[in-house]
Specification:
- With 58 residues, the chain is α+β, with helices and mostly antiparallel strands.
- 16% of the residues lie in helices and 24% in strands.
- It has a three-stranded antiparallel β-sheet with strand order 1-2-3, with no helix packed on it.
Length: 58
């Protein structure tokens, strides 16, 4: 079973505020209606290779 990637906890995730493409990924360079990790999985069949956990301690 693959570990679920939570894009909101990634340093590359951003909110676009566009109604039709609200989620973005700086690492892959796209905006999407779905979470970036879901879009990557659906497109390539592989899990996101760029996920990097945000440092919430600062």
């Amino acid at each position: 079973m693959e570990k679920r990637i939570v894009c909101q906890k990634c340093i590359y995730y951003f909110v676009t505020w566009e109604a039709n493409r609200p989620h973005g990924c700086k690492a892959y360079g796209f905006k999407s209606l779905l979470m970036p990790s879901v879009t990557v999985k659906n497109s390539s069949g592989e899990t996101c290779k760029f996920f990097t956990q945000k440092n919430f301690n600062t």
